[in-house]
Amino acid sequence: MFFLVKEGFKKIFIKLLLLSVVCIVSSLNAVDYGGEKSYMLKLPYKACTVSPIPREALEAGIIPINTSKAKKFFIEGALFYDARKKSDYNKAHIKDAKPIIFDDSKAKHTVISLPKSLDKNMIFYCYGDSCASSYEAALAVRKHGYKNVFWYVNGFDDWKKKGYPVESK
């Protein structure tokens, strides 16, 4: 019986030790907003998000599209929104695309220049199929009543590789 109790304390001690290490590391990256602290660990973008499968997007009312469909929408004058890091947007983005800013302190996207019409075609993209930022931004816009929300799954890298129109800020 003493052995079982000793093992239980050992497990609890290890868990408390790990929790302490996480708290110490996290406190270095604490963001204070509105009296609450938010703790986060920064990871490379490919490690921090898992992209949803197209079926999940469809169930949420977001239509996944590929590069050829995105190009068709571009020619037709659809609005494009870039959900990549601001520095990457500034280097190059799909011509006339608007930036989407992710506010780390509030863990939410801020979309700039939304159309007045809820029926306008809106295409959201980021790095490619391993990135979920564009999907999350599209989902937020969809929840505000926009009807024609598209998730460009292949993303900017594929667009640029095909030689389609890009610009820098």
In one word, what is the shape? globular
| Adjacency order of strands in the biggest sheet | 3-9-8-4-6-7
List how many beta strands DSSP finds: 10
Please give the count of helices. 7
Describe the structure.
The chain has helices at 2-27, 45-48, 54-59, 67-75, 86-91, 133-142, 155-161; strands at 31-33, 36-38, 63-65, 79-82, 93-94, 98-103, 108-111, 122-125, 149-152, 166-167. It is an alpha/beta fold. A hairpin with a 4-residue loop joins strand 6 and strand 7 (108-111). It starts with a helix and ends with a strand.
Fold topology:
Layout: H1 2-27, E1 31-33, E2 36-38, H2 45-48, H3 54-59, E3 63-65, H4 67-75, E4 79-82, H5 86-91, E5 93-94, E6 98-103, E7 108-111, E8 122-125, H6 133-142, E9 149-152, H7 155-161, E10 166-167
Parallel strand pairs: 3-9, 4-6, 4-8, 8-9
Antiparallel strand pairs: 1-2, 5-10, 6-7
